[in-house]
Amino acid sequence: MAETKNKLLMIGAKHVHQKGFNNAGLQEILKEANVPKGSFYFYFKSKEEFGLEIIDVFLSFFEKEVGGDLSDKSISGLNRIRNFLRTSMKGLEDGNYAGGCPIGNLSLEMGDLNENFRVKLSQAFSNMESKLLDSLKDAQSAGEISQSIDIGTVAGFILNSWEGALVRVKAEKSSRPMEILEEILFTKILIN
Amino acid sequence: MAETKNKLLMIGAKHVHQKGFNNAGLQEILKEANVPKGSFYFYFKSKEEFGLEIIDVFLSFFEKEVGGDLSDKSISGLNRIRNFLRTSMKGLEDGNYAGGCPIGNLSLEMGDLNENFRVKLSQAFSNMESKLLDSLKDAQSAGEISQSIDIGTVAGFILNSWEGALVRVKAEKSSRPMEILEEILFTKILIN
Hints:
With 192 residues, chain A is mainly α. Chain A has helices at 2-19, 26-33, 37-43, 47-66, 77-94, 102-110, 115-141, 151-172, 176-189. Helix content of chain A is 74%, strand content 0%. The longest helix of chain A is centred in the middle third of the chain and has 27 residues, at 115-141.
């Protein structure tokens, strides 16, 4: 049943986000999901295939939750980016700065170890970047930011620097890296 | 002998950089070092203590190699920062974009799992940031960058965004995230 598969993916995503892919135990996940090992292998050929589908769960979570602000066309492009930064900062504060971005975490953990993971994570980043680019396009069309800004470059820069702020947040357990990111973006880069 | 301890740390650092801390096998490290398990426990109380000392190895590598440019006082502050970015990009290219920054990697892997690691990684970041701050101070004193730049904030921003570029490099296996970082820093932020 799709319900069992979905339950495995949700619980798996939680474990991978908390502990990383290699450190997440299949036994523990199956126990929490109350699903026997045989059923797991009915849905997934391997732990690797399970992990690759978990990346889809993470991307979907970004699109609907953390990065959902970026798709809210009722709000101006520039404010969508600001809301995205604030929503992600609020999420970190509410979660005591644990977790961070699972796509970034998995990239550092798996980027050199598994080419299937790497390709899928690279695609997930492109998808996330395209949401930022859409907001920057709208900001530029509406005259919120200068026409001279190369929004393709800036979209990548914002995503990468956001990932970097999350690396530092995970070590500092403080919002400061996110605050610095917002300050620099809105006073030096996203200007008119 | 200090030599044996040092050999264990060097080989351990290589394994942790390649595979992460949890995924690095003590057996494999001991085999490569040709050191019996008993000797390991003469030098280190546990794998955790070994890992904490490996963070010192990584920081020392940053100070002497990757970030060595930042301490070269014969060069202007602004050029030290540019050299640092270029040296790290060259290192990534030479290594086929594998590895990245071990301090950043360990922060994402261990930041939520082990408080001793987290504190030590946070200190390592502060140390790295202070090298950037020194370069920014010299750049500001020499009039290379505007007096109005808040160099404390910018030092943190550069380090965090550099870490973020490395996250993306690991997924993309391309220098593009590092090129974008240099472009934005030197055209939007480090200006006069």
